[in-house]
Each structure stands twice: as structure tokens, then as C-alpha cells.
């Protein structure tokens, strides 16, 4: 039996008490694909807004949140790719997922998501064009953020080692 199989067999079905959170990478590279974890609307260590769009969070504020989330994604990606030339290592944006904490009846998630796409295009130029995207309305997001953005990138081929 493989070690992972044995650990699965021994794993408790019910979670233990909440404590230290598991480590999750801000960005994870596998071959020529880099996936950035979802980023919330944090600037200078604080959420720029809290709550749901259409009930306490305005449409314009939600768009600002989406832009900040996209900026946070690109910051995580830049940090992950520092040894490969930073954001210049990106060949193109594959896909973007945008979650919008939405009040009942709010149906403009796609327009909120446009602000994230616009930021990716502003920073990355044509590299960002034509990506696939999903914009979803949800009841709530982690930490009360009104928006969360996650993205997948295709990276340029690494030069062969001499």
C-alpha cells in the first residue's frame, strides 16, 4: 500500500478543531502553466470594501475591488516568476474566474468582472487578450470581500540550459 493510501485510510472523517490554516501557495507552476490562487480585494493589508454587491457595496466599488483583486493576482504571479523575468515570462492569460458576492437580484457580475479583464489587459497588453472567463454571483466570499479573482496563465518556454 502506498503511504498516501495508508494516510487516507487513517484520516478521520470529521475535521478537528479549527486551528492553524494549511499552507496554500499564492501561485503554483506546473510546466508551462501557472495558476494563481484566488485573491480578494485587499490593499495595504485591509479590504477596500466588505459585503455584497447590490446591498451595501456599490457597482463602482465592486469594479474597484475586481481591479484590486486582479492586481493582487499579478503581484503573486510576478513574485512566483521573479527568477524567470517576472511578468515578462507570461505568454498569455488562459482563463480568469471572478466571483462576486451578490445581493439577490444583482445580475451584473460580468460587468464587475470586466474591470479585472481591463487591468490584465492594461498591464499585460495583447498577452491578456482573448482569455476565457467566468463571472459568478455567490452569497459570500472569504473575509467578507465583495470580489475574488483567480487566473491561469500560459508561460513562455524556458530557454534550454547550456
In a nutshell, what does this entry contain?
The chain is of the alpha/beta class and 162 residues long.
Descriptive account of the structure:
- The structure is a single chain.
- The chain has 162 residues and is an alpha/beta fold.
- It contains 3 helices and 9 strands.
- It has a 5-stranded mixed sheet with strand order 1-2-9-7-8. The protein has a two-stranded antiparallel ribbon with strand order 3-4.
- Helix 2 packs parallel to helix 3.
- The protein starts with a helix and ends in a 7-residue tail after the last strand.
- The mean pLDDT is 90.
Descriptive tags:
9 strands; 162 residues; 5-stranded mixed β-sheet; alpha/beta; globular; two-stranded antiparallel ribbon; 3 helices
Could you outline the blueprint of secondary structure elements for this entry?
Layout: H1 3-10, E1 27-30, E2 33-40, E3 42-43, E4 46-47, E5 52-53, E6 56-57, H2 59-80, E7 90-101, H3 109-124, E8 132-138, E9 147-155
Parallel strand pairs: 5-6, 7-8
Antiparallel strand pairs: 1-2, 2-9, 3-4, 7-9
